[in-house]
Specification:
1 helix, single chain, alpha+beta, 16% helix
């Protein structure tokens, strides 16, 4: 009886080791934050980026890749400025692609003394079905 109990405890401990290892591989750490990536049906990757040079030129970038079923992608891209405690949109672009890849890049001159970010709502289409998500860049102070 005691051997069965010890064997059962050992089996539970071994099973928990495998569960913890598998869970650790599903996400990643960024600083002290645990990153959880959503699973999409049609969108393989979506990313928004912002870079600002010393002249105040903000480069807004949005990259979207759909899976093999995607026939087109649309994106609304917002360049936003943090002012008076909230994010305000200062420039909007509407982009589309008739393929499974959308690559957007544009430059907009900004004012000094504020924080900026790029936020985009993207939609991937597969026939009559679609899937949308919103991506946001890290913020940059200029």
């Amino acid at each position: 009886m005691r051997r069965k109990f010890i064997a059962m405890i050992a089996a539970i401990l071994i099973a928990n080791i495998f569960v913890i290892t598998a869970a650790a591989e599903t996400g990643g750490l960024k600083g002290n934050e645990f990153i959880i990536s959503p699973m999409y049906t049609y969108i393989s990757n979506a990313e928004a980026l912002l870079s600002i040079n010393s002249s105040g030129n903000a480069t807004a970038e949005v990259y979207v890749t759909g899976n093999s079923k995607v026939t087109s992608i649309k994106a609304t891209i917002f360049l936003q400025q943090y002012k008076n405690g909230s994010w305000t949109t200062i420039k909007i672009w509407n982009e589309s692609s008739d393929t499974k890849i959308l690559n957007f890049i544009d430059i907009y001159n900004i004012s000094r003394g504020y924080e900026y970010r790029v936020r985009s709502t993207v939609t991937a289409y597969s026939g009559q079905e679609s899937e949308s998500t919103t991506v946001t860049s890290s913020s940059q102070y200029y």
